[in-house]
Amino acid sequence: MESSQFGSERPISCCRVNGTRLLTGCFGGELRLWDLDSSNMLKSWRAHDDRICSVDWNPCGAGGPLCASSSLDKTAKLWGWKDDAPVLLQTLSGHLGRVTTVKFHPSGGFVGTVSCDCSFRLWDVATGQQLLLQDGHAREVFGLDFQCDGSLAATCDQSGVCRVWDLRTGRCVSTLQGHVKGMLCCCFAPNGFQFATGSDDNTVKIWDLRKQKSIYTVPAHNSVVPDVRFDKTGEFLATCSFDHTVKVWSTRNYKCLRVLEGHDSRVSGIDFMADKVGVVSCSHDKTWKKWSNDVL
Predict the structure, then answer these.
(1) CA-to-CA distance for 62 and 124, rounded, in angstroms?
(2) pTM of the full predicted structure?
(3) Which long-range contacts (CB under 8 A, 24 or more apart) does 199-205 make?
(4) Residue 14 pairs with which residues in a beta bridge?
(5) What's the start-to-end Cα distance of the chain, in Å?
(6) I need a surface site. Which of 85, 158, 182, 256 has the fewest CB within 10 A?
(7) pLDDT (tens digit, 9 = 90+) per residue, 83-117?
(8) At 169, phi and psi to the nearest 5?
């Protein structure tokens, strides 16, 4: 597996791929847009007053690209483009702590946020209005993802509790526990009934909603796991860690297929590139890397 490295002035905290575009968030509050084919930086702008915690792309993107960012400054923001320049569309204010994750609903019409204020909130993309507030967690909430059909959301917190919410009623329909330390991230598989969580206990757990329990524990890394991602086929799972590595796993047996080494500091985010080309990772070493992989 080959890698290419690209630099930034500050540590990179998060990244997400949208086709041939990569969006990264930095410790200084900057967002940067990159072209994955050429690896050239297309845009850079100051988006927040403090470190960016997460970024995401609208899966629908009607009317042009739309992305979101969240920050230690207790806000999330929605961004569009006009005349090839980023435009602030909405500022989502209301959280009392840092907004750890922002995630678009599969419909594209809503966006979710979770925060260190222990809450999960759902917002209307067009108006920026808060539609749902849930504060059922006892500790800081770090992970958020939506099921592929948009009916369920999963949130996970620093007490090691994952809650699954039915968005049609706004109620928690499942509470899952199993990690021995806090959870940092979660990601639904394309099949809709399984999802993965990464934790401070250095492991990744695979959960089955039909059985309401963990069906596999992956002893993934030697340090905390801040991000996990399924590829669009559901055949592969990528994980990253503060142990400076990225790993790619087969979801058939959760055997490790590749260990990607090369970052000089904590790896903070990962995503799959389109068309089974490979994986993108970003790190506190101020670089992002794209890894071409003949396995994918």
Answers:
(1) 15
(2) 0.94
(3) 199/160, 199/224, 199/225, 200/158, 200/224, 202/241, 202/243, 203/179, 204/228, 204/237, 204/239, 205/178, 205/179
(4) 25
(5) 10
(6) 85
(7) 889 999 999 999 999 999 999 999 999 999 999 99
(8) -115, -15
